[in-house]
Specification:
The chain is an alpha+beta fold and 440 residues long. The chain is built from 12 helices and 20 strands. The chain folds into 2 domains: 289 residues, Aminopeptidase, CATH 3.40.630; 122 residues, Alpha-Beta Plaits (2-Layer Sandwich), CATH 3.30.70. The N terminus is likely disordered.
């Protein structure tokens, strides 16, 4: 109890003194979208349908079960590239809900559950990602205080997984049949160096047919994300012989070369990103060396670049490579002994940019469904599973998990169940509008 109270106190204090630290990677977009009345009428008809009303009521009444699922999944570790335990549990939970034609885990580790429609011919996905950013061994025990859950990964994106289950449960309870096939999906590799490997696989030649993609991820009820924020990620490594700081003095030093390379990169990148389409850069991780009195044999750094325009990332990659080459040549030129340093610049992540037309039916339905809840849509540009279908021109949107939350990607992550059921109702409404409600 003392540990929990301390955690709660830390959260409250940090929230008061450093709200800027809670900024999300997705940004608001000032897009103006005209809503076609056709979709308002379509959504209104769905909401007034007896089976949809029944499903909505069930979602609210079964909220305790959704929270139980939420806690259960949160407490199963899903570190980068090691999502298999959570994947197996999620697949079993989907099977236990019933109403599915098949459930399987693909070669990449994604969980897929097919619920065939009355007509078929079209496949609509409802997705949440399985992985978290936290390394193996992180304490993921959920601490509950009133309507608030505290645990690493409790919001991003375990809440989304529990919502996918709740949508399926409600469809079964109300005996809802869709026209199109529905795929319920739990993807791997959404976070960090996972580099969207799960969704990339789904849209490769090895993946299933997918015609529309709805992802549940960060953000409040009302989020409509149909613009993809692209990113390039690189690992830069300088390598040398290494040696004693006194006895081997004069050897080329990888850390010195890295420092020079970073200085040249930051100077050039700062000038480049000062104007033009929004672009960012960040040196996120660095390492190397064995002791304070040793010349390191290796110095490494990992760099993240983001832009709304893909060509800007290509330009910034060139800036990075030229800056690091300059640092290499400079350090090699002043060495007094030993072999020269070697440089490796490797791309370790690539997420494509892209934008969809707001006139697409899926986007129009996303907006109309939000307005049916008496809210205005909040348009964002983000880096999510939807990046891949968006870049391919396939209708896709990322919607929010709702409730309230904060401190994502930190040990202090929390999610509060403030009318959280509404986001599940919204997810169901959007899924039904895109897949079609069968008269059967």
């Amino acid at each position: 109890m003392k540990r929990f109270l301390t955690l709660t106190w830390m959260l409250l204090v940090c929230a008061c003194i450093a709200p800027q630290l809670m900024a999300q990677e997705d940004e608001s977009d000032n897009t103006l979208v005209a809503l076609n009345p056709r979709y308002e009428k379509e959504i209104e008809a769905l909401i007034n349908h007896v089976k949809v009303k029944q499903a909505f009521d069930f979602i609210k009444q079964s909220d305790a079960q959704t929270i139980k699922d939420h806690i259960y999944l949160t407490e199963i570790e899903a570190p980068p590239f090691k999502e298999d335990k959570r994947a197996a549990a999620f697949a079993e939970m989907l099977k236990n809900e019933g109403g599915l034609d098949s459930v399987w885990i693909d070669a990449e580790g994604n969980v897929l559950a097919l619920r065939k429609g009355a007509k078929g011919g079209k496949v609509v996905v409802l997705d949440a990602h399985l992985d978290t950013v936290f390394p193996e061994g992180t304490d993921v025990t959920v601490r509950v205080s009133g309507d608030t859950l505290f645990a690493p990964g409790v919001g991003d994106d375990t809440r989304g997984l529990s919502m996918v289950l709740a949508v399926l449960r409600a469809m079964n309870e109300a005996e809802i049949q869709t026209e199109a096939d529905v795929l319920f999906v739990g993807t791997v590799g959404e976070e960090g160096l996972g580099d969207l490997r799960g969704v990339k696989y789904l849209f490769s030649e090895n993946g299933p047919q997918i015609d529309s993609w709805i992802a549940i991820d960060g953000g409040d009820l009302g989020r409509v994300n149909f613009k993809a924020l692209g990113s390039y990620r690189f690992r830069v490594v300088f390598k040398g012989p290494g040696g004693h700081s006194w006895g081997a003095f004069g050897l080329a030093n990888p850390h010195h070369a890295m420092a020079a390379g970073i200085k040249y990169f930051v100077d050039a990148a700062d000038a480049y990103t000062e104007d033009g389409p929004r672009t960012s850069y960040n040196i996120g991780r660095m390492g190397g060396g064995t002791s304070v009195n040793s010349i390191p044999f290796e110095s490494w750094a990992e760099i993240d670049m983001r832009s709304i325009r893909p060509e800007r990332l290509d330009d910034l990659e060139k800036v990075l490579r030229e800056a690091m080459q300059k640092g290499l040549e400079e350090q090699n030129a002043i060495r007094r002994r030993g072999r020269p340093l070697q440089l490796e610049v490797t791309m370790i992540g690539k997420r494509p940019s892209g934008e969809l037309s707001p006139d697409l039916p899926l986007i129009q339905r996303s907006i109309a469904a939000i307005e049916a809840f008496g809210m205005e849509a909040s348009y964002t540009r983000g880096s999510t599973d939807s990046n891949i279908p968006i870049s391919l021109g396939i209708p896709a949107v990322t919607i929010g998990r709702g409730g309230e939350g904060g401190w994502g990607h930190s040990l202090l992550e929390w999610w509060a169940n403030k009318d959280g059921y509404q986001s599940i109702q919204y997810s169901l409404l959007l899924l039904l509008s895109e897949s079609g409600l069968s008269a059967k």
